[in-house]
Specification:
- The structure holds two protein chains of two kinds.
- Chain A has no helices and eleven strands.
- Chain A is mostly beta strands.
- In chain A, strands 2, 4, 5, 6, 9, 10 and 11 form a seven-stranded mixed β-sheet that branches. A four-stranded antiparallel β-sheet of chain A has the order 1-3-8-7, with no helix packed on it.
- By secondary structure, chain B is mainly β.
- Chain B is built from no helices and eleven strands.
- In chain B, the strands form two sheets. In chain B, strands 2, 4, 5, 9, 10 and 11 form a six-stranded mixed β-sheet that branches. In chain B, strands 1-3-8-7-6 form a five-stranded antiparallel β-sheet, with no helix packed on it.
- The mean pLDDT of chain B is 94.
- The chains are: A mainly beta, B mainly beta.
- At the A-B interface, β4, β5, β9 and β10 of A face β4, β5 and β10 of B.
Chain lengths: 110, 112
Amino acid sequence: NAGVTQTPKFRVLKTGQSMTLLCAQDMNHEYMYWYRQDPGMGLRLIHYSVGEGTTAKGEVPDGYNVSRLKKQNFLLGLESAAPSQTSVYFCASSYTHEAFFGQGTRLTVV
Amino acid sequence: KQEVTQIPAALSVPEGENLVLNCSFTDSAIYNLQWFRQDPGKGLTSLLLIQSSQREQTSGRLNASLDKSSGRSTLYIAASQPGDSATYLCAVPSGGSYIPTFGRGTSLIVHP
């Protein structure tokens, strides 16, 4: 009963490096989301997907790219990391009404 | 654009008190509203989901109400315990979609 799994859980990057965060869900959900959580800012939507092969921009998409090649996976990419992207990243999925969240990825860019 | 406000931002109470956490939203054309709990350094755990056709939902000592017309929801915690200490987040879909928009949360501390 895994639910939503995020990989990795922690990562330290140097400015300019790239990385991909993986989100996997086993609930056959159509909708998947990537949020970032910063102190005092709450959770802000980066990108989302309403089904396999689809992606769309959220509130704070700059500096990030996403892909949804398989229904169960939603990848978040940082092409050239910046210190402003230091944050905790959460992935979520939903069928319609109820959203389920992963445990988060704590990313530090130095 | 949906905007979600949670009041108070922080709350510190002695054990045993009954609590009310407030959530207000600007777009009342919603399908549902969801309350989450977040412990420090952890992910979000769903507490209660209220469909737009419902007025309230209950789970143990938690009761959430929804008033769509006024754009408000409250989370009532009965007989608070130190284990209830966490941040409580309200999430409401925006723009006729299912995409959750979050408030900034209420940070709750229940001291013995």
